Amino acid sequence: MSPTEETPSQHREVLRLALPAFLALVAEPLFLLADSAIVGHLGTPQLAGLGVASAMLLTAANIFVFLAYGTTSVVARQLGAGNRNGAIAAGIDGTWLAVGLGAVTAVLVAVFAGPICRLFGASPEALGHAVTYLRISAISIPAMLVVLATTGVLRGLQDTKTPLLASALGFTSNIALNFLFVYGFHWGIGGSALGTVIAQTGMAVALVAVLMREAARNHVTLRAHPGRILGAARTGVPLLIRTLALRAVLLTTTWVAAGLGDVPLAAYQVSAVIWSFLVFALDAIAIAAQAITGKALGAGDLARTRSATTLMIRWGVIGGVVLGILLLLLHTTLPRLFTSDPAVQSAIAAALIIVALSQPLSGFAFVIDGVLIGAGDGPWLARAMLANFLAYLPLILGVHLMGDWLLEDGSVRGSNNAVTWLWLAFTAFMAIRGVLMWARVRTDKWMVTGATR
After folding, report:
1. What's the CA gap between 137 and 199, in Å, rounded?
2. What is the DSSP letter of 183?
3. What is the pLDDT of residues 421-449, one digit of tens each?
């Protein structure tokens, strides 16, 4: 990558977008962290069940993350080209698409919750808790997708503060409702799911109200346009493929963890939620990258695109180093927040060491991913993630085959070793992803200018 001049205004712009985005992005893992901490003290089977259910719930919602990422890119390009009304109209199309996709997905997940959870091979007791949580939480899927779409619109309009306010309210209400339903009403894991449903729905309503106000201010109709909605869906297909491949990686990892037993699965659930929290923290810079890259390319400014990319990659790596150090300092303290089982605590601590050491690599890969999404480079991202998944399969299946050997003595050490190998395999996946991202961003093929790609 050729060196380019960075300006103080670029630093300020990244901070202006990234800081509120960080605080908003961590709401989703904070939802799961709160659920894990509350459910974990009900027992290890409950926590293991939450691990299976949350993996499927996040998959059902996050395979449609293009509703946020693709919308951010399209809206930012229109804004950069000086067409604010077109930007808002594109966002409304994405929101209608979210409503339709969410309704269909919610019905499918609720109806097939049992067969879906059984695919993971968890223990019978953990399976029962997983089905309960997934069936109830499926109600929130339409709201989750609407939150993705409306957040994408606002980010594209260079507004990351409004999603922050909605996320703060959602997280606060989620904790209060979970405590009330689980410990006040004694509804168990089902109460935790219901609290999350209500909080997610409240966030969706608040963000839709903001979008409606923005549309009224700019005299943009809220009516659904089937042709444009189908166009938005077609534009999102490459990002959908990319996300499906990524979710396949995460689901395969959860499947292997479930086959290792309740203790490794419970430890993986907690460490994965902490990893997700760190992902979203680092992804704040990637969100800024999406908005800045889309707007700069929409305005035809290649020099600004390149210099901002260099700056944000550096920030991503530095952010990863800082988060990694903090996690290393806390890796023996955090497990006690989630469970009272000494075996699970020990396995979580072992996993968090690997998670901490991999954070600079994560920051590097996530920021470049955000740059390429902002540039509308979806087809390449889809191909790269499919290749990444195929390269990962032999590694994670190797851990699956080693399961009996790792757990042979049935001791705490065996569970620690199993979870450690699980995370080493996943870190290798991130390393492959980083190499592919670097090879792409060094070229100029992804920098296409104009209101549309």
Report:
1. 11
2. I
3. 999 999 999 999 999 999 999 998 898 87
User: Can you spell out the DSSP letters for 346-375?
Assistant: HHHHHHHHHHHHTHHHHHHHHHHHHHHHHT
Of 72-76, 121-125, 405-409, the poorest mean pLDDT is in: 405-409
Question: At a CB cut-off of 8 Å and minimum separation 6, what does 356 contact?
Answer: 323, 324, 325, 327, 328, 331
Q: How far apart are CA 132 and CA 181, in angstroms?
A: 14
For 452, the token pair is 């549309």
Backbone phi and psi for residue 65, each to the nearest 5 degrees, phi listed first: -65, -15
Is 51 or 310 the better-scoring residue by pLDDT? 310
Tokens describing residue 417: 């070793």
Give the Cα separation of 173 and 181 in Å (integer): 12
Helix pair 412-441, 342-357: axis angle to 10 deg: 20
Neighbours of 280 (CB within 10 A): 22
> What angle in degrees, to the nearest 10, is found between the helix axes of 161-179 and 141-156?
160
Largest Cα separation within the chain, whole Å, is 69
pLDDT tens digits along 28-53: 666 667 777 888 888 888 888 888 88
